[in-house]
Design goal:
290 residues; MetI-like fold; disordered N terminus; mainly alpha; 14 helices
């Protein structure tokens, strides 16, 4: 840093208008930079294995190798999905589950991000909160169900709270780890330009810890889809979890597999934006190695 020009950006321009801070952010080891370069993606490659498995499954089911009451043929599962879709029942169940997951994900991700930043920045707060949170993280999802039923009843509140709980821990853990790994020199330069509090978190800490942050969001979303099944066991009359239970109680394995297939597809679709986001960025050290 040299000259007075280095110190006039924070109060007059955008957060990264200062040349010195821009250089510091670009050279920090945890900072990311966009890179359009890379090997061309082959989106159809990932479909080869699932399609081969489905074809083999269909053949084995057709020839009676797989018992129909355990593994009905994929075409039978597809017909069950078509019947549910034509009647509109499937969309009501999918909509109910999607709404629960999205609301729970938003709440859990927000709380995990805020606490992750706080404990990542403060050693005292980390020592105070982290041991208890790590202990709570080990509790199975189903163990929370009776407690949430007592606290919140069988309405939507208990279901959303359980999903938010599952989302919270991966986001918190990854954000804390990412913030603690931010280069101290980057923080020193940011302090020179009066970056503190929410401004520091928004413009310096989260961008520098972006890979860990994205990984936490993706992990939290995955757990959110797992926890929604436990949540929908709490007296739900709609949702894909309800379809699972309905198929099991009425001995319709095609209904159970149809619900599982919907979970897989919806989980992949909701993860896709985060996958694209993570692929649009490259570590600075990877660029330096090219």
């Amino acid at each position: 840093m040299n000259g007075t020009a280095d110190f006039r950006a924070p109060s007059q321009a955008s957060p990264f208008a200062s040349p010195s801070l821009s250089v510091a952010l670009a050279t920090g080891p945890a900072q990311l930079r966009g890179s359009p370069r890379g090997r061309p993606r082959r989106p159809l490659t990932g479909w080869i294995l699932p399609l081969c498995v489905l074809a083999l499954w269909e053949v084995l089911a057709r020839f009676g190798v797989l018992p129909q009451h355990w593994f009905p043929a994929p075409t039978r599962v597809w017909r069950a999905l078509g019947t549910l879709g034509a009647s509109g029942v499937l969309f009501r169940h999918v909509g109910a589950t999607m709404l629960r997951v999205l609301v729970g994900f938003a709440g859990g991700a927000l709380l995990g991000t805020l606490l992750g930043i706080a404990t990542g920045r403060s050693r005292r707060l980390h020592a105070l909160l982290d041991p208890a949170l790590q202990a709570l993280r080990s509790i199975p999802s189903l163990a929370w169900v009776p407690l949430f039923l007592l606290w919140l009843g069988i309405g939507e509140g208990s279901k959303v709270a359980l999903i938010a709980l599952g989302v919270f821990f991966p986001v918190y853990l990854n954000v804390t780890t990412g913030i603690m790994a931010v280069d101290r020199r980057l923080l020193e330069v940011a302090a020179l330009f009066s970056y503190r509090g929410p401004r520091l978190a928004r413009h310096v800490l989260l961008p520098a810890a972006l890979p860990a942050f994205i990984a936490g969001l993706r992990g939290g979303l995955g757990l959110g889809w797992m926890f929604v099944v436990a949540a929908e066991l709490m007296g739900a009359s709609r949702g894909l979890g309800y379809l699972l239970v309905d198929g099991q109680t009425t001995s319709r394995p095609e209904l159970v597999l149809a619900a599982i297939l919907c979970f897989a597809l919806l989980g992949k679709l909701t993860d896709l934006p985060f996958d694209i986001w993570s692929r649009r960025w490259r570590w600075k050290r990877f660029e330096s190695a090219e």
